[in-house]
Write a structure and sequence with these properties.
The chain has 407 residues and is an alpha/beta fold. The chain folds into three domains: 87 residues, no CATH class; 141 residues, Translation factors (Elongation Factor Tu (Ef-tu), domain 3, Beta Barrel); 155 residues, Nucleotide-binding domain of ferredoxin-NADP reductase (FNR) module (Rossmann fold). The chain is 25% helix and 21% strand. It has a six-stranded antiparallel sheet with strand order 6-5-10-3-4-7. Strands 13-12-11-14-15 form a five-stranded parallel sheet, with helices on both faces. Strands 1-2 form a two-stranded antiparallel sheet. Bound molecules: flavin-adenine dinucleotide and NADP nicotinamide-adenine-dinucleotide phosphate. Its cofactor is FAD. This is ferredoxin--NADP(+) reductase. Its EC number is 1.18.1.2.
Length: 407
């Protein structure tokens, strides 16, 4: 990526995608950046993370010449990591010294995004924490949350759980002081493990309870899903460099998400199509490429952020495409269960064509099975073109165009 391109990010999210004035005909930067970090730098952060105020200002994401980047990597500054010659926020808060944030009301969604489906684990929530500007992050990163516990082996507090960040760098309220997550509540009834014996399970915040059964309630997901505004939350991170957006505003972004794997995609879409930070001076968007989201969920009642996706589709019909696979309600023409790869197979030629363009990036997040699903979908077309899908995917990965976070 041209060094000039990255300079846009140096200017912060309010100017992300902007061409740096000093560079000749540069490609503007696509990736967002925490934008109010200059005024949000407090003594707490400098102390806790061991980084000075200057590093926490707009320079946090500064583009640097390769040599400087190498030096920075060699020096190993605390709180930052050099990725493709740029510094990004990195583990500002550790499990031993987490940031204590507060839960805030979300201004777009009710906390629960899904409706009961009959499954014990039907609920997914959208939760927003106030971090006071002390936990800057960029789109595609994750944070850790420490629940009070007890954990699986009785540990108190519990070990950290990672969550992909679902808000863009500026946060849902665009103050750069909040971070949002999309969390599925883990509830298992009469399964292999139990932390509630018969008679012990009580209604959670959404009213779900199984007092007649042995129940396992996920330690951290239940802690988060039961939070109410004003509650305290212990945050670590940010971390993650696999799912970062490219700098090029003309890049094409293909997004594949199963369930809560939608979290990083939501953060991208906010930057691309919603935030002031992504608006251009001509009234359009700084993002000039195409974005195509494929989302896989079990029920239509579990289609996460569908309202936002429909809004983008209506407002940006030439730039945003949205398809979903509802596995337990839809089938394809051959009568097969509709998984995300089944849906993508309907557009295999078009997607294959897009992937030949070096401006196209694929982002995949959610269940592990998605990767083999891609092979199922694109294996035949790759073969038709004299290629092996696994090799093609490997080459895309090497070119930093194939981003996978599944487990
Ligand atoms: C990079 C990354 C990003 C993530 N992003 C998200 C996200 O955006 N949203 C989201 O909802 N989740 C996300 N996760 C998953 C998240 O980190 C948690 O794993 C998830 O919330 C479950 O945690 P929990 O504490 O609720 O469940 P846990 O209490 O950890 O339970 C998890 C499982 O452990 C099993 N178990 C219980 N006891 C035992 C035992 N003794 N031995 C073995 N197994 C046992 C349970 O049956 C249960 O299925 C992400 C994970 C990673 C790695
Ligand atoms: N950064 C990360 O790594 C990250 C972030 C967020 C979430 N996650 C993980 O992503 C997963 C999402 O879980 P969830 O409970 O939120 O999802 P969910 O609501 O259960 O939805 C998952 C969907 O994927 C379908 N599916 C099952 N097997 C599949 C396969 N082989 N290929 C394609 N689709 C398949 C499911 O169908 P059926 O159930 O009908 O078979 C369902 O429709 C979890 O494992 C979560 O921990 C990872």
């Amino acid at each position: 990526m041209a060094q000039a391109a990255a300079v846009g990010a140096l200017l912060g999210a309010s100017t992300a995608f902007l061409a740096p004035s000093a560079a000749p005909a540069p490609a503007p930067a696509l990736r967002g950046a925490p934008h109010s970090s200059r005024d949000s730098t407090g003594p707490g952060l400098a102390g806790a993370a061991g980084v000075g105020a200057a590093a926490l200002g707009l320079g946090l994401l500064a583009a640097r010449p390769a040599a400087t980047a190498c030096r920075a990597a060699a020096v190993k500054k605390k709180g930052v990591k050099v990725v493709h010659g740029k510094e990004i926020p990195w583990n500002l808060f550790s499990p031993k010294a987490p940031y204590q944030g507060k839960v805030v009301e979300n201004d777009v969604h009710k906390q629960t995004l899904t409706e009961p489906t009959g499954d014990a684990n039907w609920e997914t929530t959208h939760v927003t924490f106030d971090h006071g500007g002390k936990v800057p992050y960029i789109e595609g990163q994750s944070i850790g949350v420490i629940a009070p516990g007890p954990d699986k082996k009785g540990e108190q507090p519990a070990k950290i759980r990672l969550y992909s960040i679902a808000s863009s760098a500026v946060g849902d309220d665009q103050t750069s002081k909040t971070v949002s997550l999309c969390v599925k509540r883990v509830v298992e009834v009469d399964g292999k493990f139990a932390n509630r014996q018969k008679g012990e399970d009580k209604p959670d915040k959404a009213g779900t309870a199984y007092p007649e059964n042995q129940v396992y309630r996920g330690v951290c997901s239940n802690h988060i899903c039961d939070m109410t505004p004003g509650d305290e939350v212990l945050i670590t991170g940010p971390t993650g460099a696999e799912m970062l957006l490219p700098e090029d505003p003309e890049a094409n972004i293909i997004m594949l998400a199963t369930g809560t794997g939608i979290a990083p995609m939501r953060s991208y879409l906010r930057l691309l199509f919603h935030d002031k930070a992504g608006a251009s001076s001509d009234g359009g968007r700084k993002f000039k490429g195409k974005a195509w989201l494929f989302m896989g969920v079990p029920y239509s009642k579990s289609l996460l952020y569908d309202d936002e996706h429909q809004t983008y589709k209506k407002a940006f019909p030439d730039q945003f495409r949205y398809d979903y696979a509802v596995s337990r309600e839809q089938k394809n023409a051959a009568g097969q269960k509709m998984y995300i790869q089944t849906k993508m197979a309907e557009y295999a030629e078009e997607l294959w064509e897009m992937m030949q363009d070096e401006k196209t990036h694929v982002y995949m997040c959610g269940l592990k099975g998605m990767e083999s699903g891609m092979a199922e979908c694109f294996g035949p077309i790759a073969e038709k073109n004299g290629l092996v899908w696994a090799e093609f995917a490997k080459a895309m990965k090497k070119a930093d165009r194939y981003h996978v976070e599944v487990y």
